[in-house]
Design goal:
The structure holds 3 protein chains of 3 kinds.
Chain A: E1 6-9, H1 24-43, H2 47-77, H3 84-109, H4 111-114, H5 125-128, H6 136-167, H7 170-198, H8 211-236, H9 246-277, H10 280-290, H11 295-313, H12 316-320, H13 322-344, H14 346-349, H15 357-379, H16 391-395
Helix pairs in contact in A: 1-2, 1-15, 2-3, 2-6, 2-7, 2-8, 2-13, 2-15, 3-6, 3-8, 3-15, 6-7, 7-8, 8-9, 8-13, 9-11, 11-13
Chain B: H1 25-37, H2 42-68, H3 83-107, H4 117-137, H5 164-197, H6 201-211, H7 218-251, H8 263-289, H9 298-329, H10 332-343, H11 347-359, H12 367-370, H13 373-400, H14 415-438, H15 444-448, E1 463-466
Chain C: E1 16-23, H1 26-38, E2 44-47, H2 55-58, H3 66-92, H4 105-132, E3 155-160, H5 168-177, E4 182-187
Antiparallel strand pairs in C: 1-3, 1-4, 2-3
Classes of the chains: A mainly alpha, B mainly alpha, C alpha+beta.
């Protein structure tokens, strides 16, 4: 057995000619048109349902993009070695945030269908006292501000990384390392307040200081599940051979596992403290979800988003095997949808749990939109940061 | 010294060396083992004797407490929980950095941890010892302290498992046990090294007994490394759970300022924050005392400064969100508590807390300060002052304004409160002095894995990209 | 001797324990382990001052069974914790506290978790000791001249005399050929 350096083929950094991945933007665009078209067609039938379903889909793909953006920023800030080979994929995912601003428009249009605080004439004293943060004007002003921060960062970090593929200029990396630290602070704050505005305020009486962390935890579950699937798909298409190895998949699996546990920790902390103290203004949120039609969903969420994947993903063999990792990742993508549905929908359905066709079509439409941007970026640059100074370190990294 | 001692500049093209001074395996062993093999230096006595004096202060304070009862402390009617709980939370928190370094940084493959993990883990154990004093002594009737454990007794009485305080008993005792095991497992190969170098028969026998007959075999290393990884994987959620459960002592209540859902992760971040500050305090001294500049390099300190800054900002985030949600909640009690904290009778404590924990770590945005040991040393003490005050602010400000204004009061500690706190530092420093004298304070076997020459495939590049333009 | 002593290796009778060969550095011992493995030896070991990455694979060792031990002890600890709390709170000392049901499972999660971790960690440490047959305070290798370096900077391979392929001269030649800088015969006792 020789221990000479491993030879890796540079052509593996590009999508193979004729690969279906090259048509991802096209397919996604079709999905977006079909999904959004069908959703709008059904809007007249149940306008409220349309907006709520849209909001879930919006929050879902926002969390994916934000998770990816934070993952890129953290990689720069910590000068990560192992993750360079998956960083471009995360950059492309974060670029999905840029088109998500389009998906924000229907959310804003439907404000008065979703948020009880829009009905200013019938507000009680408590909610009226919150209008310095809530209210349609705040919603749009803050919304634009959040998007401005995220779009700029998603664009700037990817643009420099792609530019480096051509120039090989290491200063691009150095500048991003400097910017990444403050950028994380900005994203952490904007993500928190966005989750307050968009999701927590659906029940304007309810409040929870951990809510922003909860949304963040879900976003990291989502992004590592997504990246695992993309990596597996690309390897199947014959790309990234020698770049993304079993070691990287194992690491993505470990991060997925870690954030499944972290999500459970945050989710349980929130539930537990509210359950234990039993203060009426807080428990209403869980009362809605733990009785009647939502009770099975809550149990399903606890088991499906934590119990089962915790036991399943614990083994290193599961994480290193392509099929089992792929199954786990796909399951977590689904469970993240259940999670957001569970957070948002009781504000609409009240006591009764329900899934409508609109839940499917909006996910298809907004997801298609998101993946169009993702696919567009994916097909227009190398699949890995080709001239990143730490690329070799990343390729050759091994787990314990 | 001939060798360059600044490794804080890490080029993006590679990695800065972790260990300087041109060390190889043999010289590293010698350097780490040396303090154990020479005559006890005067400097050690100068640290040890005052520590023992402080420890005896603890003895006196606790003896008087047992004799006289908790009335010697400054507790009053609304503030029924004073310095004892503040000190308890403070010391448990200090411990958390040791576990973060030994477990979480291990899982994240942060190899720089190898130079500091041994002493940080030792610090964890001593801090937990200090913490355990307070729940033990504050119960009033110490002779029934065993009621905290689920032991059958003559009254057929059992603990209340729905009480956060009983969770604390389990969390902290599990934490103490697992930290001790983790530390000891890490020590075994190094104890064997000391055994094999020992010249006196007594030392050979004592270190030999604790080294368990370790013979550095690969068949052993294999199970050993697996055990170490599993311990790290268990200690990671454990360390999160411990301070989360400590936070539930407060958060499970209905008291404004205590009951808030962000408490568990916020307490964990604060614990790591204060613990890293304590590691920095101790390591700055040890680096100088043991002339370990090449092993405890500036880069290690810079990384710790970064973690202090990050966790400090997490704590700041929690302060901000608590304030924001209090305002947003529309709950007048919540709003009162936070305004009272910032502008009420304890505003001085609140602003010490904010100044030390949120504002002062901001200087670590600048590399100049992260790599200046004097600044780091001063900052680390600031942070620990700030974190002590954080617990003080949480405990006292929420209690001293009861729901009934007729019960409002101002809490002040007594002479005995102060002596007990000082005494607990005595215990901490005494233990640390003993550790630094008799045990290898750097994990030799682990540091060797990051030295050049440790990689069986050589130190050159292991892959070449062919066909790249 | 009839009774097995826990701290002493149970070795077959024989004059020599085997051979101890020293190698220059980590790459040398890695290559040598592959050679000894490929030569078909089974009763042998290598000794390094730190865990050399991939040396277990170079020796052809099977993966450690420790994770299964930990899983068992950890789950037992957690289950025992939950049962204890259930029994205490529902049967032994049933009191209604803060209006909560006697079996308030969320309140029992912290202790259940802690006991799971505690027993998992105990299983990891004592399971590792058991798998490694530690403590073992006496071993023939400790009498070898250069063996003290194994905890300092020495890289060693030891081959035991009761390995079916063992032959003092041929095995020593193999070790020298594999790059040993020093080969020593170690006596049994």
């Amino acid at each position: 057995m020789s221990h000479g350096p491993r030879i890796v083929d540079a052509a593996q950094m590009d999508l193979p000619a004729g690969s279906l991945w090259r048509r991802l933007p096209l397919f996604s665009a079709i999905a977006a048109i079909v999904g959004i078209g069908a959703s709008f067609a059904m809007r007249a039938g149940d306008e409220k349902q349309f907006y709520f379903s849209w909001l879930v889909a919006f929050l879902y793909f926002m969390s994916l993009g934000l998770g990816a953006l934070l993952f890129v920023l953290i990689q720069y800030a910590t000068k990560t070695g192992w993750g360079i080979v998956v960083r471009r994929l995360a950059e492309n995912t974060a670029a999905g945030l840029i088109v998500m601003v389009l998906a924000f428009i229907p959310v804003y249009i439907g404000l008065d269908k979703m948020y009880a605080w829009t009905d200013e004439a019938h507000l009680d004293e408590i909610v009226r006292g919150k209008m310095w943060f809530l209210g349609a004007e705040n919603y749009i002003v803050f919304g634009v501000l959040y998007f401005a921060v995220w779009i700029f960062l998603a664009w700037w970090f990817r643009a420099g990384s792609v530019k480096q593929d051509l120039t090989g200029d290491h200063d691009l990396t150095r500048r991003r390392i400097v910017v990444a630290g403050p950028a994380i602070v900005l994203v952490a704050l904007t993500l928190t307040f966005a989750s307050f505005h968009w999701a927590m305020s659906l029940d304007p009486h309810w409040y929870s200081t951990i809510f922003g962390v909860y949304y963040f935890a879900g976003s990291f579950v989502c992004v590592f599940a997504f990246l695992s699937l993309v990596v597996l798909g690309l390897r199947r298409a014959g790309a990234l051979e020698g770049f993304v190895t079993v070691e990287h998949r194992h690491d993505l699996g470990k991060l997925l596992f870690a954030f499944v546990v972290f999500w459970a920790y945050i989710g349980f902390s929130q539930f537990f403290l509210i359950w234990y103290a039993n203060i009426p203004e807080e428990t209403e949120w869980y009362l809605e979800r733990m009785h009647h039609g939502w009770q099975p969903v809550t149990i399903f969420l606890a088991v499906g988003h934590f119990g089962l994947p915790f036991l399943y993903l614990m083994s290193r063999h599961i994480k290193r095997n392509k099929l089992t990792l792929g199954l786990g990742a796909a399951w977590m993508l689904f469970m993240h949808f259940v999670d957001l549905h569970w957070v948002v929908m009781p504000a609409h359905h009240g006591k009764e749990f329900g899934v409508t066709l609109l839940d499917v079509t909006t996910m298809l439409g907004v997801g298609g939109l998101f993946l169009t941007a993702f696919g567009f970026c994916l097909t227009r640059a190398k699949l890995v940061p080709a001239k990143d100074p730490r690329l070799i370190e990343s390729i050759t990294f091994e787990n314990f | 010294m001939a060798h360059q001692l600044d490794n804080t500049h890490e080029p993006v093209e590679g990695r800065a060396p972790l260990i300087l001074g041109g060390h190889d395996f043999k010289s590293l062993t010698g350097k780490v083992a040396e303090p154990l093999e020479r005559k006890t230096p005067l400097g050690w006595w100068l640290c040890f004797l005052p520590s023992v004096a402080m420890l005896s202060v603890l003895g006196i304070a606790v003896a008087w407490l047992f004799w006289e009862g908790v009335g010697i402390w400054g507790l009053n009617n609304p503030v029924g929980w004073g310095w004892a709980i503040v000190n308890f939370v403070f010391w448990v928190g200090i411990g958390h950095a040791g576990t973060l370094i030994s477990a979480i940084l291990f899982l994240f493959r942060q190899k720089w941890r190898t130079s500091i993990n041994r002493s940080a883990e030792a610090m964890t154990i001593f801090a937990v010892m200090c913490a355990l004093i307070f729940p033990g002594i504050h119960v009033g009737r110490v002779w029934v302290a065993y009621w905290m454990f689920p032991l059958p007794n003559q009254m057929a009485m059992w603990p209340n498992f729905r009480s956060p305080l009983i969770w604390d008993v389990f969390a902290v005792s599990t934490y103490a046990t697992v930290s001790l095991l983790f530390w000891y497992v890490g020590l075994i190969p190094d104890l064997a090294t000391i055994r094999d170098r020992a010249t006196s028969r007594l030392k050979k026998i004592i270190y030999g007994l604790f080294a368990l007959g370790w013979r550095a075999s690969t068949r052993h290393w294999q199970h050993y490394e697996r055990a170490y990884l599993i311990l790290a994987a268990l200690a990671t959620p454990l360390v999160l759970s411990v301070h989360s459960i400590v936070s539930m002592d407060f958060a499970a209540s209905q008291l404004p300022g205590w009951h808030t859902t962000i408490f568990p992760p916020y307490f964990v971040a604060g614990a790591i924050f204060s613990g890293f500050a304590m590691v920095v305090t101790l390591m700055v001294i040890c680096r100088k005392a043991f002339k370990m500049e090449a092993i405890l390099t500036l880069r290690h300190f810079e990384n710790m400064a970064k973690i202090i800054m990050v966790t400090g900002m997490m704590v700041g985030y929690a302060y901000a969100i608590e304030f924001f949600i209090a305002a947003y909640s529309g709950n007048p009690y919540e709003q009162f508590v936070f305004i009272n904290r910032a502008f009420g009778p304890y505003a001085w404590a609140y602003w010490i807390m904010v100044g030390c924990n949120v504002l002062s770590p901001q200087i670590f945005w600048f590399k100049r300060f992260r790599t200046n040991l004097k600044v780091l040393f001063v900052m680390s003490i600031f942070v620990n002052i700030g974190m002590w005050f954080e617990r003080f602010v949480i405990v006292v400000t929420s209690l001293h304004r009861d729901f009934l204004p007729s019960s409002w009061d101002y809490y002040s500690p007594t002479f005995w409160d102060v002596l007990t706190l000082i005494g607990s530092f005595g215990l901490f420093f005494t233990m640390f002095c003993l550790f630094a004298r008799f045990l290898p304070m750097v994990a030799m076997a682990e540091v060797k894995t990051v030295l050049p020459g440790a990689d069986p495939h050589g130190d050159g590049p292991k892959a070449v990209i062919q066909g790249a333009d | 001797m009839g009774l097995p002593l826990p701290m002493v290796p149970q070795l077959p009778e024989g004059k020599a324990f085997g051979l101890l060969a020293r190698f220059k550095d980590a790459p040398a011992i890695h290559a040598a382990c592959e050679k000894v493995r490929d030569a078909g030896y089974t009763k042998w070991d290598s000794h390094t001052p730190f865990p050399v990455h991939g040396l277990d694979r170079a020796m052809g060792l099977k993966a450690s069974r420790l994770p299964w031990i930990v899983l068992t002890t950890g789950l037992s600890g957690a289950a025992g914790g939950m049962l204890l709390q259930y029994w205490v709170s529902v049967h032994a000392y049933a009191l209604v506290i803060s209006g909560k049901p006697l079996f308030s499972w969320p309140a029992f999660v912290p202790v259940t978790f802690e006991l799971g971790v505690l027993f998992g960690a105990l299983g990891a440490v004592f399971g590792m000791f058991a798998l490694n047959r530690l403590p073992m305070l006496f071993h023939p290798l400790f009498s070898a001249n250069s063996f003290a370096a194994a905890t300092d900077d020495g890289f060693f391979i030891s081959i035991e005399s009761w390995d079916p392929k063992y032959d003092e001269t041929a095995t020593a030649a193999l070790l020298r050929e594999a790059g040993a800088i020093e080969v020593e015969v170690v006596n049994n006792e």
